[in-house]
Design a protein that fits this description.
Number of helices: 3
Oligomer: single chain
Distance between the termini: 84 Å
Order of helices and strands: HHHEEEEEEEEE
Shape: elongated
Largest sheet: 4 strands, antiparallel
Length: 175
């Protein structure tokens, strides 16, 4: 008997939740929820009510809590920048292509090479494209450092100096 009451109550609660979800919460709960588990017809009434309220309502429901921007221009201007060097190892003087994404459109960006002693050499400045990315060719500078740190190419914004507005990628200077 107790299991039947719990099952009937759960069915009614599920019907009410479904009805509220379909109607967007603007209409009163179905009559079956007020009837309660009065006997063998309790679950049948609730399931009939749930199937009746599962039909689309004529009133629009509330919009979802989270939506994507309809216009890409209203989206976040940039995410955390990413940088890739192609190739990721080469001898001094070789031309390497650096590709970066995640900057704001038309943002001014500085490219530097940090050798194994953490000495930074400014290589050039570039401007991000309309999508916040760029590709630039640079010559591999010499690694005059003697420490054990891995050299890196690094890019950072000159317009929006922020620790989250930079990226680096490891690079191996070969013989």
């Amino acid at each position: 008997m107790t299991a039947a009451v719990i099952t009937a109550a759960a069915t009614i609660i599920a019907a009410v939740i479904a009805a509220v979800a379909v109607s967007g919460g603007d209409s009163p709960p179905p009559a079956a929820s007020a009837a309660g588990p009065a006997g063998p017809s309790g679950p049948t009434t609730a399931s009939t009510s749930a199937s009746a309220s599962a039909e689309p309502s004529s009133t629009p429901s509330d919009p979802p809590l989270q939506t994507l921007p309809a216009d890409p221009a209203t989206a976040t201007p940039h995410s955390r920048p990413r940088l890739v060097a192609v190739p990721d190892r080469a001898p001094e003087g070789t031309v390497v292509t650096l590709k970066a994404t995640g900057f704001a459109p038309d943002e001014q960006i500085r490219i530097v090479f940090r050798d194994s002693d953490y000495t930074e050499k400014e290589l050039r400045d570039v401007t991000a494209g309309p999508d916040g990315s760029f590709a630039a060719e640079v010559h591999v500078p010499s690694d005059t450092g003697t420490a054990m740190e891995t050299p890196v190419f690094r890019v950072y914004s000159l317009d929006d100096v922020d620790t989250d507005n930079q990226a680096d990628t490891p690079f191996t200077v070969t013989e």
